[in-house]
Description:
Strand order of the largest sheet: 3-2-1-4
Number of strands: 4
Mean pLDDT: 89
Order of helices and strands: EHEHEHEH
CATH superfamily of the domain at 10-103: Spore Coat Polysaccharide Biosynthesis Protein SpsA, Chain A
Shape: globular
CATH architecture of the domain at 10-103: Alpha-Beta Complex
Distance between the termini: 51 Å
Number of helices: 4
Structural class: alpha/beta
Largest sheet: 4 strands, parallel
CATH class of the domain at 10-103: Alpha Beta
Radius of gyration: 15 Å
CATH topology of the domain at 10-103: Spore Coat Polysaccharide Biosynthesis Protein SpsA, Chain A
Amino acid sequence: MGRMGTTMRLSLVVPCYNEVEVIARFHQALTRELTATGRPYEILYVDDGSTDGTLEALVELAATDESVRYLSFSRNFGKESAMLAGLRYATGDAVVIMDADLQHPPELIGRMLTENERGFDQVIARRNRTGDPARS
């Protein structure tokens, strides 16, 4: 089935490890951007064995936001395992993988979707290091 004439459902996969300090702010920014796209979406948080209350924060988000689902690992398996688990459980037509630490600005989602609609199967945001402190 082609993209034309159908509403693409978007899945956001968000690996999390000890993100309790930023998760509420991240979720608010992410929800604002997703709502602005006008598309149906789900957010799938994957807790990678956090020890700081991240899981409890995700349980609360899922209880108050019907677009949120979460997975939780019993211990830390690493970001790659969290991404793969998220991809396995994502139900959308397109998937965006994004870190919860706001290193990936949620504002990029709309631009990424535009590129996808132009026919690109994979759209990868590359970080521009302009303005980062110099490393020695």
